[in-house]
Amino acid sequence: MSSSSKYSTSLPLMEHFYTIQGEGFHQGKASYFIRLGGCDIGCVWCDVKDSWDAAKFNAIAVEEIVNEVVKRGAKICVVTGGEPMMHDLAPLTNALHTKGIKAHVETSGAYEISGNWDWICVSPKRFKLPVESSLLKASELKVVVFHKNDFRLAEEYQTKVTASCKLFLQPEWSKEKEMLPLMIDYVKANQQWEISLQIHKYMDIP
Hints:
Order of helices and strands: EEEHEHEEHEHEHEH
Strand content: 15-25%
Radius of gyration: 16 Å
Low-confidence stretches: 1-6
Mean pLDDT: 93
Helix content: 25-40%
Structural class: alpha/beta
CATH class: Alpha Beta
CATH superfamily: Aldolase class I
Shape: globular
Strand order of the largest sheet: 3-1-2-4-5-6-7-8-9
């Protein structure tokens, strides 16, 4: 775990907002998003590179963060980043559950999973490979397809998750027109996989 693991009862909060989950298994559900600062994965196509340096963001108390979720009446809270598992998230998940809020996380799987989660979406990145323990805990495996070689990586990751894990392929936004036809053909031939689209971008919401 990186030096940003110094955060626990407070976390480097980049942004937070109530919106609609736009991707994966829980697509279309109202969800409160908490985006934490800190990431060392280095995805070249990352659309939130400002999140990489945790030191840029104020450390906010977990209680204060959860109170914002409660105020909006959200039943699902999605923790993302950056790479959220660079931090100890047990205090955050415990606080969310105390308020009756389901805790979901979106992680690259590059770090061990901390916290007690209702749903774990692991979206592995080729720039820093996932650890086996994180893949085994995945409720959902979401592979971003940037290049046709990513299908091969998806097949490798599939062998490392449990049989109950939901499998999704998602086109990288800038490559969607190029990759989507390939994905359609792939899923027709490999029906254990499904396609995830970033519907929040079509709706023009965060």
